[in-house]
Structures are given as C-alpha cells and as structure tokens.
Amino acid sequence: EPDVTIVSGLKDAVVAEGDDVTFRCQVSHENARDVEWKLQDVALQNNEMNEISVEKGKIHTLTLRKVTEQDIGTVTFRVGPHTSTA
To answer: What is the domain count for the chain?
Structure first.
C-alpha cells in the first residue's frame, strides 16, 4: 500500500456563531485508510453536527454545522503518520 501524504493542508477559518464551517485536506492517493479528524484532540464521527466526506477520492472534507463558542479550537486531520492543523 503506498504511503499517503498530505498534498494540500488545512487552512484557518473564522466564522460567526451559528454558521457552518468546512475544512478541506487533499491527500496524495485515493481511498486513503487510517484517516482521522479531531477537534480539540477529540476524534470526530460523521453525524448531524459533523459532516465528514471525501470528494474526488483525494479531498477529505469536514463540515462543522452551526458552530458555537465550544467549537473554538484546533482542527486536526491525520492520515497515517501525517497531520495538518488549523
């Protein structure tokens, strides 16, 4: 299995309370396994508040819905040993 690396990392975002915010990270290979999103070191699952998806096989996206002050913090994307934060 090829070593998947991060081609394009996360970018910082500032949003108003109640808005949605989307983070994108592009990886080098499609169908990357061992992928994880975190907010403030807490692993995120795909649910009504967090939409986790993959576009075009290589662009991993995380949308945080209706953010609140409690969502302030560091978002981390990890694939294998590689990480990107915003």
So the answer is: 1
In-domain check, residue 57: yes
The tens digit of pLDDT for each residue in 26-55 reads: 999 999 989 999 999 999 999 999 999 999
pTM: 0.94
Joined tokens for residue 2: 């090829």
Tell me the percentage of the chain whose pLDDT exceeds 90.
94
CATH number for the domain that contains residue 13: 2.60.40.10
Classify residue 38 by burial, with Cβ atoms within 10 Å: 0-12, 13-18, 19+.
middle
Q: Which domain holds residue 58?
A: 6-85
Three-state DSSP class for 21? strand
Please give the C-alpha separations between residue 39 and each of 13, 16, 31, 46, 68, in angstroms, as whole numbers: 13, 17, 23, 13, 13
Terminal Cα-to-Cα distance of the chain (whole angstroms) = 28
